[in-house]
Design a protein that fits this description.
Elements: E1 2-5, E2 15-19, H1 22-30, E3 34-36, E4 51-57, E5 60-66, H2 74-87, E6 93-102, E7 117-120, E8 129-131, H3 154-169, H4 174-184, H5 187-190, E9 227-234, H6 242-252, E10 256-260, E11 272-280, H7 291-306, H8 311-316, H9 320-348, H10 350-359, H11 364-373, H12 381-384, H13 387-394, E12 401-403, H14 410-422, E13 429-435, H15 446-460, H16 465-474, H17 484-495, E14 500-506, H18 517-527, E15 533-535, H19 538-555, H20 566-580, H21 584-594, H22 600-608, H23 614-623, H24 630-642, E16 647-648, H25 649-657, H26 679-682, E17 686-692, E18 699-705, H27 708-715, H28 728-737, H29 740-755, H30 764-770, H31 774-788, H32 792-801, H33 807-816, H34 829-836, H35 839-847, H36 862-869, H37 872-880, H38 897-904, H39 907-915, E19 923-924, E20 930-931, H40 932-939, H41 942-950, H42 967-974, H43 977-985, H44 1000-1007, H45 1010-1018, H46 1033-1040
């Protein structure tokens, strides 16, 4: 090899060579005719962590990159190739060169042996490489082509053709190049199991079914390697089992010649040819003996191939990075076309919009995009390449529970997983996801989870839509909301229509449940097998954290002062990594604080006193807030900590301006000129997120707490304790202000003061534009006031605001969502206090002479409003003050108070109303019509059914409901077996007729409730009864596909 030299620019390198293993890199380097040093003016991007070797083979300048030591797999190969193209944008072709496992079938004429070369070559629909762990056999032995990857560039295929033609006349030059390697690198051939032929006696092929029985093969005339062209199978699994190997080959149905582990990650991101030397047969006899020789032989063949690529042809070839851009546009166009077709189909589906509005589903893509924006390129690949994840992805594991310490990056990792799954572009495979979100109550319940997943399936699988449509019809065409049980059952029916499905759920600990986090964790451990538990280890996360720190030091504007000081950057990185301990969140906060260090003395002082925990970190952030901003920060943190949703940036700006003790309460001229400056108030404790309006294409900015751990700290009782001793007074201020009672009192004052400024009634949209905080204040002030209404000044403010003759009150009613009646009357203050659970306020209003039976509001009167929301103390108060428990109301929900409480499952209120004379057989109209027994039976409230029956409810009374005509039909339809049994025991007629299904048997049969069908038949149900939507029970079961019932 000639002496080392440096080229003037990295742009002179046109061939990219990737070697996954150190031995492959050594072999590739040994084939260089000339080795180069780092090119002049080479500025390696900060995200590119590849190690490069430069040189020349023949007329071509070649750059070689290898994967990190000990790392292999399709995802790492993708990262390596992508980084290479960003650093060397003039590369025109790629070569993936190294070792692989041969697929020998001597009985079929495919005599592949150890030391032979396998080269990817397109065949039929295959581009030369398929990803076997994405392959799935279909009925009739047909197979999906979803795993076929892109073809190599044309210039490489022409070179292959020339070389193949040359080998028809002359022997390969592989042995010649191996001899040159040995001469120039004698150490490579002297070591044990060196880069030399290992002997025919060490090449043995065994039967898959009998690992000890060798297959006898005819000896070859020469030890020269033979070259095989065809399809190479690539995947993330290291195959060491002949049974598994043959099963994969049977699944993919391809005449493959080789298995390997990197190509699938490259073919769609790096235009290349794959060259593999056979070092084993992917069976139990796999060893490392042939690996070095195999690596050398593959490299030698590659050197021979490059000689058949004219430089002028290579210069005419499109740059690889431009090919990728073209493919990306094509892929986006393809995805857009498919998406447009889906959207067009959904828009033509007249039910889609109705279903979406009915279920009111949160949009999980907002959380996904937010998390992906925080993702640092290359991080998370350790998990995507892990055995547990790939076994889950391939279906070998049904569940995977990934858990780790707070702040370790689980949500970003979840988003990375979702992106990875979606990038497979496998149309039959549906990926569903949901992010529980502590900042927004819309994303905190199991009910919302199932609603979101159901609509995702609806939008992706046309055949699933009839199941949701059926539930929609049963709920009075969207007039009622489905029970969780019925919705979940429908969702399970919907996913039966999907061939393959993956569901990713993030942040179970942010689900709003009465159960403690420890209880959820304990239940998961009991429910999932130990193999499904994957604890996030600190080492791989720390590796990702290091990359994140490195990226921020290189790219953050505030760290530009240290751009040329590499030793300082290394010092920052080293000190942070000593204490990061697997916490991304901790590292992010420290970097935010270090940005403020203007010189080396300040920086090193900060590095010496780094906080140890997140709590201590947050205390320092609070302590470091400028005293001029402190009251602003307190207000913002009070709202964000105790609100059920984030604030828009305009709302947050107005929160700061409001002065409940000022005159006026609100002066718009005092608003911040630049709303984004609000980020300077609370520093790292909050984040600004771009959201999209679900009803339009408009975007807006929301302010939210930066992490769940921030909320947990601010709600704790140790805020002040974590402050530095010399700042204990400031810590006490934050401790007092952020205590729940103090915070909710301040929020209530701000909201009421803001609403007092809304004197003119106008269009909702115009009002919201002029007064951004109006909608929040109208919707949530009573929610906050419930905790603090007994405080004197709060109580006075509420009573003053409840002067319902004022224009302010009228504006609030419109914003709150309550309607005026045709006669122009508005809901009374007593009604609204009862609806919101303001017990103290309701008592004061009654003392002042409020009419306890006044009509108004969507629920009709105060008693029904309180009963519908479960406010038992207010119900008792109203009854004591003379509320008519049987008063018919003109509200649109429920017929009376007992109907509302029975439907919603409030047992204690039902008991209270019954004890005070409520009619247990009263029927009602409205959106939740029927009698109270049917309401409780339909919703599955067994204890309430028992109370009603014990107090004289008629199990056979017709209800007049729109969907069911009687409690037995309702319970049978909804699958409540215990209630069905209870009603039958109380004399319910198993052949009672009426309603949507006509009979209980038809209702149960249509829904697939086998045990209830059996129970009804045992109690005399007529199997041949006619009527209803289906005609008979048998027709109902047959039509819906319930074979066991048929």
């Amino acid at each position: 090899m000639a002496s080392r030299k440096d080229l003037e620019s990295p742009d002179f390198y046109t061939v990219g060579w990737i070697a996954a293993l150190p031995i492959e890199l050594a072999a590739a380097t040994a084939m260089l005719d000339e080795e180069h040093g780092e090119p002049c003016n080479f500025d390696q991007p900060q995200h590119d962590t590849n190690i490069y070797t430069w040189g020349r083979i023949g007329e071509h300048n070649v750059v070689i990159a290898s994967l990190a030591a000990g790392v292999y797999g399709t995802t790492s190969a993708t990262t390596t190739a992508t980084c290479m193209l960003s650093s060397f944008p003039h590369i025109r072709i790629g070569l993936l060169v190294g070792i692989g496992a041969g697929i020998a079938r001597p009985e079929e004429g495919r005599d592949i042996r150890l030391g032979d070369v396998a080269v990817s070559q397109p065949e039929g629909s295959s581009g030369g490489v398929i990803q076997y762990d994405l392959y799935k056999a279909k009925a009739g032995n047909q197979r999906e082509s979803k795993a076929f990857l892109n073809r190599p560039p044309e210039v490489l295929l022409k070179a292959l053709a020339r070389l193949q033609a040359e080998h028809e006349r002359k022997p390969s030059r592989v042995s010649e190049f191996l001899a040159q390697m040995a001469k120039g690198n004698p150490r490579m051939v002297r070591q044990r199991q060196g880069y030399v032929y290992q002997g025919v006696e060490n090449d043995r092929l065994y039967k898959a079914t009998e690992p000890s029985e060798e297959i006898q093969r005819e000896p070859r005339d020469s030890s020269e390697p033979e070259i095989h062209y065809g399809t190479i199978a690539s995947g993330n699994t290291l195959l060491k089992d002949a049974i598994q190997r043959d099963r994969i080959l049977e699944d993919i149905g391809q005449e493959c010649i080789c298995f390997e582990m990197e190509a699938a990650g490259l073919m769609n991101t790096f235009p290349c040819l794959v060259i593999r030397e056979i070092c084993d047969y992917a069976d139990l006899h796999k060893s490392d003996q042939w690996q070095r020789y195999a690596a050398a032989t593959a490299a030698a063949y590659t050197k021979e191939l490059l000689a058949y690529i004219p430089t002028q042809d290579l210069q005419k070839t499109q740059k690889a990075i431009n090919i990728l851009k073209d493919r990306s546009v094509a892929n986006i166009h393809s995805i857009t076309t498919r998406t447009a077709a889906v959207v067009e189909g959904l828009s033509e589906d007249s039910q889609y919009r109705k279903h979406k509005e009915w279920l009111s589903t949160p949009d999980p893509s907002i959380n996904l995009n937010e998390a992906l924006e925080k993702h640092h390129e290359g991080t998370g690949s350790w998990f995507l390449e892990s055995e547990p994840f790939n076994e889950w992805k391939s279906g070998k594991r049904r569940h995977l529970w990934l858990h780790g310490i707070p702040g370790c990056g689980k949500t970003v990792l979840s988003a990375t997983i979702i992106k990875h799954l979606n990038q497979q572009l496998i149309i039959p495979h549906v990926v569903l996801y949901f992010f529980f979100d502590f900042t927004n109550t819309d994303n905190q319940s199991l009910n919302k989870l199932v609603r979101s997943l159901a609509m995702q399936v609806y939008s992706r699988c046309e055949s699933s839509r009839k199941d949701l449509g059926k539930l929609f019809s049963l709920c009075e065409e969207g007039g009622q909301q489905p029970t969780f049980k019925s919705l979940f059952a429908t969702f399970l029916q919907m996913i039966d229509h999907v061939e393959t499905i993956s569901i990713v759920i993030d942040a179970l600990d942010e689900c709003n449940t009465s159960r403690r986090e420890e209880d959820i964790e304990s239940e998961l451990k009991r429910w999932l097998c130990p193999e499904s538990h994957v604890a996030i280890q600190h080492d791989p996360v720390n590796h990702d954290i290091r990359a994140y720190i490195h990226k921020r030091l290189q790219t953050d504007r505030e760290f530009e002062r240290w751009q040329s000081e590499h030793s300082v950057q290394n010092e920052i990185e080293t000190e942070l990594m000593k204490k990061a301990d697997g916490m991304f969140r901790w590292a992010a906060c420290q970097l935010d604080m270090l940005q403020k260090c203007l010189d080396l003395r300040m920086l090193r002082a900060s590095l010496r006193s780094l906080p140890k925990t997140l709590q201590e970190t947050y205390a320092r952030i609070l302590a470091g807030i400028d005293c001029n901003y402190r009251q602003y920060a307190i207000k913002i943190l009070q709202f964000l900590t105790y609100s059920t949703r984030p604030l828009t940036i305009q709302e947050a700006v107005d929160v700061i301006v409001v002065d409940p003790n000022g005159d006026p309460y609100f002066d718009p001229s005092l608003r911040m000129p630049n709303p984004r400056d609000i980020m300077k108030v609370c520093s790292s404790l909050v984040s600004l997120v771009i959201k999209r309006d679900s009803t339009s294409t408009e975007t807006f900015m929301e302010l939210q707490l930066a992490h769940l751990s921030v909320q947990q700290y601010l709600k704790s009782r140790v805020i002040g304790e974590a402050f530095p001793r010399e700042m204990a007074t400031i810590g006490g201020i934050f401790q007092t202000s952020l205590h729940e009672v103090s915070a909710r009192a301040d929020i209530t004052r701000v909201c009421l003061a803001y609403l007092e400024c809304l004197h003119e009634q106008g269009a909702h949209r115009e009002l919201k534009a002029e007064f951004p905080l109006a909608e929040y204040s109208a919707q949530y002030w009573m929610y906050h006031a419930r905790t603090v209404e007994t405080e004197k000044d709060i109580s006075d403010r509420i009573l003053n605001f409840f002067d319902h003759q004022s224009q302010v009150y009228a504006v609030w009613i419109e914003l709150f969502g309550e309607r005026r009646w045709r006669d122009g009357s508005m809901p009374t203050p007593l009604y609204l206090a009862s609806l919101a659970g303001l017990q103290h306020t309701a008592r004061l209003l009654l003392k002042k002479g409020a009419d306890v039976n006044a009509q108004g509001g969507q629920y009709g009167n105060a008693l029904k409003a309180a009963s519908s929301q479960g406010h038992k103390a207010i119900v008792r108060l109203l009854v004591e003050k003379g509320a008519d428990v049987n008063s018919p109301t003109r509200g649109i929900y429920y017929g009376n108070a007992l109907h509302a409480a029975s439907s919603q499952g409030y047992k204690d209120i039902v008991q209270l109303l019954v004890e005070n004379g409520a009619d247990v057989n009263a029927c009602s109209a409205g959106l939740a019509g029927g009698n109270v027994l049917q309401a409780a039976s339909s919703q599955g409230h067994k204890d309430i059914v028992e109370i009603l029956l014990a107090n004289g409810a008629d199990a056979n009374a017709p209800s007049g409901g729109l969907d069911h005509d009687g409690p037995l039909e309702a319970a049978s339809c909804e699958g409540h077996k215990e209630i069905v049994q209870l009603l039958l025991d109380k004399g319910a007629d198993a052949n009672g007729q009426g309603g949507y299904y006509e009979t209980p048997l038809q209702a149960a049969s249509s829904q697939g409730h086998k045990e209830i069908v059996q129970l009804l038949l045992e109690n005399g149900a007529d199997i041949n009864a006619q009527g209803g939507d289906y005609g008979s029970a048998l027709e109902a079961a047959s039509y819906e596909g319930h074979k066991e019932i048929v």
